[in-house]
From TrEMBL:
Official protein name in the record: Uncharacterized protein
Region of interest (Disordered), ranges: 445-485
Membrane spanning stretches: 61-84, 104-124, 136-156, 162-185, 197-219, 249-268, 280-301, 313-337, 358-380
UniProt superkingdom: Eukaryota
KW Membrane (keyword) present: yes
An example Gene Ontology CC term for this record: plasma membrane
UniProt biased composition (Polar residues): 448-458
Gene it is expressed from: ABSGL_08836.1 scaffold 10450
Gene3D superfamilies: 1.20.1530.20
InterPro entries xrefs: Na+/solute_symporter_sf (IPR038770), Put_Na-Bile_cotransptr (IPR016833)
Organism: Absidia glauca (Pin mould)
Pfam families linked to this entry: SBF_like
Keyword Transmembrane helix annotated: yes
Length: 485
């Protein structure tokens, strides 16, 4: 009797515990579904703020990324606004005595940090590539200034309705050397030859101390003569004290550059750590912004922008963009010599590799504010202080535009370099005969009973690279070396 009751109770217990899904009643399913819905709605209500927080964090991350990448452009805008609203602070003879604290102190700091940043060992590796360096410097310091000088003379002859000081500023901007750092960064990002870019950044700024004042001195007379008579440009004329200019540029630019380079050579590791820890490149950029602030403060205080309209600024921006794109294309054409490959023998001898071409493009077409603004200050230090601001405007706009257009070029040139590397790999493999023939039937190759080729069936040189190329696998690091075009 007890056994029977125990079996019945155990069977009832089992049936209650192991109820199959099919045994659930429709009412219970509906109740469970409604409970689940109510639970989900409560959770969703509590999760809504977190979703908003996630969106806020994403927006914040994007904004911070843009600020960290383009903070210099924002700082440039702030410097111009401060000069516009408070010109008495940083003008010549103003509260901070900018003629000494900024136009001497900031410039010396900029080029001292440049000397610390130039890696001497990398410069030594590429110093003997004389033809490459000569091509870049001739384009940057002779061809481009000559082209812009002729273009501005043509504008004057055509009586284009543009401010004459801005047009003269275009010629001065074209006469400055290549940038100190941004061309090296963009060359590296595009997988170009960083060492060549670094070498020509240093060489160009040293040559610019002597060449740029000479170019401005030569161009100044014809430009003033070609200016329409109703344009007040006499403040941009006058005699350039070439010896005095070289002396001041030597003290503020060359000496700090050499001293920084000597310190970098003697204490390479310590300087590298200090540069990262103290963010010396950002300190140099801030010093440059103070120089721009001072220059525009002088221009606003003297009322020099009263004759410059918004149409003039837009026109200069369009001209700058056209010049940068044209000079980049010219540099690419002269360096890569785009004949059908391989082309004539003379083209093969003169053609540069794709990484070298990238370095040539960035170093030839870019112009430096760090050298250009001090140069304009020294050249016209005895003239109207406000003139310097107007003459500097085309160079400042060109600097901003070359950063924007240069970064757009980075991805295009990077793909072009990689495509050339892949073409060279395939060409090298074809020249060395690394081609796997079409497979034959097993019985024809190894006999009727063979289903796998023995390891000795392949030639010894078909180890990794040939098979990798045939199957689409990237070639091994031990594959034959190749030269980039």
């Amino acid at each position: 009797m007890n056994d029977t009751k125990w079996k019945a109770s155990s069977s009832n217990f089992a049936s209650e515990v192991t109820i199959p899904k099919a045994a659930l009643s429709p009412s219970s399913l509906k109740r469970k579904h409604s409970i689940a819905n109510s639970t989900y709605s409560e959770k969703s209500a509590t999760l809504t703020p977190s979703r908003n927080v996630t969106v806020y964090q994403k927006i914040k991350s994007v904004v911070l990324t843009l600020l960290s990448k383009y903070w210099f452009l924002l700082g440039l805008a702030i410097a111009i606004i401060l000069a516009w609203q408070f010109p008495d602070v940083a003008k010549k003879g103003g509260y901070i005595r900018a003629e000494w604290s900024v136009k001497w102190g900031a410039v010396i700091l900029i080029f001292f940090i440049s000397g610390l940043s130039l890696r001497t060992k990398i410069l030594a590796q590429t110093v003997l590539r004389i033809r490459l360096h000569m091509m870049i410097q001739v384009m940057n310091l002779l061809i481009i200034p000559g082209v812009v000088f002729g273009l501005v003379l043509l504008f004057f002859k055509m009586h284009m309705p543009l401010n004459s000081l801005l047009l003269i500023g275009l010629v001065i901007a074209a006469s400055t050397p290549t940038t100190v750092s941004s061309n090296v960064v963009m060359t590296k990002n595009a997988d170009g030859n960083e060492a060549s870019a670094l070498m020509n950044a240093a060489l160009g700024n040293v040559l610019g101390i002597f060449v740029s004042p000479a170019l401005v001195s030569v161009f100044q007379g014809p430009l003033i003569d070609a200016t329409p008579e109703d344009e007040p440009t006499t403040q941009a004329g006058g005699h350039v004290d070439f010896v005095g200019v070289l002396k001041q540029l030597g003290i503020t630019v060359l000496v700090p550059l050499v001293v920084g380079q000597i310190i970098q050579w003697l204490f390479t590791e310590k300087v590298a750590k200090i540069k990262v820890k103290c963010r010396l490149s950002d300190v140099s950029s801030v010093a440059l912004l103070t120089l721009v602030w001072s220059v525009f403060s002088d221009a606003v205080a003297a009322g020099s922008f009263s004759s410059v309209s918004a149409v003039d600024i837009v026109a200069v921006m369009i001209i700058n963009a056209g010049l940068y794109i044209s000079f980049s294309i010219m540099a690419w054409f002269l360096a890569s010599i785009p004949f059908p490959f391989p082309g004539p023998r003379w083209a093969q001898r003169l053609r540069y590799s794709r990484p070298d071409t990238v370095a040539i493009m960035y170093c030839a077409a870019t112009k430096t504010v760090a050298m250009g603004v001090p140069l304009i200050n020294v050249l016209y230090q005895h003239g109207d202080p406000g003139t310097i601001g107007v003459l500097s405007t085309p160079l400042l706009l060109y600097h901003v535009e070359q950063l924007i257009l240069g970064n757009i070029e980075v991805e295009i040139l990077k793909k072009w370099v990689h495509r050339g590397q892949q073409d060279d790999i395939e060409k090298q493999q074809q020249e060395e005969g690394i081609v796997i023939p079409a497979p034959l039937h097993d019985e024809d190759m190894y006999g009727s009973g063979t289903t796998q080729a023995p390891s000795s069936g392949l030639p010894s040189h078909l180890g990794q690279s040939g098979v990798a190329h045939q199957s689409g696998i990237p070639p091994s690091p031990f594959a034959p070396t190749h030269h980039f075009r």
